[in-house]
Amino acid sequence: MRRLGRSTAQISAAIGLAAIAMATPLAWVNAQQAPRPTSGPEANPLDTSKALMAKTKQSLNLKPHAAPLTITPREKIPLDKIKVPAGFKVELWAHGIPGARTLRRGDKGTIFVGSRVIGKVYAVTDKGGERSVKTIVEGQKMPNGLAFHDGALYVMAIDKALRLDGIEDKLDSPQVTDISDKIDLPESTHHNWKYAAIGPDKKLYIAIGSPCNVCEINTGLHGQIRRQNLDILDIPLAEITRQYVDYIEMMQELKLELAAEYLVMAAILIFTTMLMLAIGSAVGARRAAL
Q1: Residue 202, in any domain of the structure
Q2: I want to staple 27 with a disulfide (CB 3.0 to 4.6 A). Which of 137, 158, 182, 251 is the partner?
Q3: What range defines the domain where residue 208 resides?
Q4: Structural domain includes residue 120
Q5: What is the DSSP string of 185-216?
Q6: Do 225 and 206 contact (CB within 8 A), yes or no?
Q7: Residue 16 domain-assigned?
Q8: How many beta carbons lie within 10 A of that of residue 145, not counting itself?
Q9: How many domains does the chain have?
Q10: CA neighbor of 67 nearest in space, from 122, 115, 120, 133
């Protein structure tokens, strides 16, 4: 019984350390992982080989409808040609947003507009019925995916992830934070412009497209919906505690004395690694601030 009691304590410690380590955001780990392939067979780039074209019967003559990248004059916008049910009418709400693609509304009513080819993100504000347009992000590769949470705008481009904190109060001088290393987006362009949203669980969801029309994709890289923690302290403590107790009871029943030794060593190793990553992240942030 004495031996069992000691192993139970060891198991408890191991599970506690492992639970903390597992709850640590994956963002700290991503920086230590080897880069995932973004070209070559493993990344499945756009395949236009004759063999694939013949097999899938794809046409190389298909072309997308090109959106104008300049501001269309108001008088050339054919509102009168848009047919709507009786009792409805169409009006021009805002003007001067070339390449507009996606919309996201801020808490204070600002309308944020993403784009693709033009590489810009706009902010539209309404004061007394007068709308003004500002460019808050530019020079990005298809910054199409937008999400808004707790005063911050998240912008997902092809291979960049940006966060603009307190953006509705800083439209004239936006502060852009690059969080690409936390999310690690693939660089492939074809069908890979992003869509993003905040879920009911207050986490960031990002759609990752495929780099081809018809092919077998690398599912470890493309064709995904990813979920990302927004808050480093967003840890489900109640669920972790429940699992912690369940594991203790299970191991007591199985009497896994020997396994306790290995659990302790593994948990300490994981926990130490996470602490080192956290310290490294903090030091990097400190150096960047300096």
Answers
A1: yes
A2: 182
A3: 8-63+100-233
A4: yes
A5: -----TT---EEEE-TTS-EEEEE--SSSSS-
A6: yes
A7: yes
A8: 26
A9: 1
A10: 115
Q: What share of the chain is helix, strand, coil (3-state, %, to 5)?
A: 35, 20, 45
Task: Count CB-CB contacts under 10 A for residue 41.
Answer: 9
Residue 185: count of CB within 10 angstroms of its CB: 21
Question: Which residues, including other chains, have CB under 8 Å from residue 246's CB and lie 6 or more apart?
Answer: none
Whole-angstrom Cα distance, residue 207 to residue 178? Answer: 19
List the one residue out of 102, 103, 97 whose CA is nearest residue 71: 97
Contacts of 221 (CB under 8 A, 6+ apart): 36, 37, 38, 42, 43, 44, 186, 208
The residue written with tokens 């033009």 in the block is: 118
CA-based radius of gyration for the chain: 25
Chain centroid to Cα 213, Å, comes to 23
Query: Using CA atoms in the order 42, 48, 52, 57, what is the torsion angle rounded to 10 degrees?
Result: 140
254-273 pLDDT per residue, tens: 666 655 665 676 677 777 77
Which residue ranges in the chain fall short of pLDDT 50? 1-6, 20-45, 233, 286-290
| DSSP designation for 1 | -
Q: Which helix (H) or strand (E) holds 9?
A: helix 2-23
The end-to-end CA distance of the chain, in Å, is 57
Strand order in the sheet with 195-198: 195-198, 204-208, 224-228
Q: Do residues 198 and 147 lie in contact, with contact meaning Cβ atoms separated by under 8 Å? A: yes
The whole-angstrom separation of Cα 177 and Cα 161 is 9
Residues 43-62: pLDDT tens digits? 444 555 677 667 767 666 76
Six token digits for residue 284: 């990097």
Query: Any bridge partners for residue 136, and if so which?
Result: none
Contact 115, 143 (CB under 8 A): yes
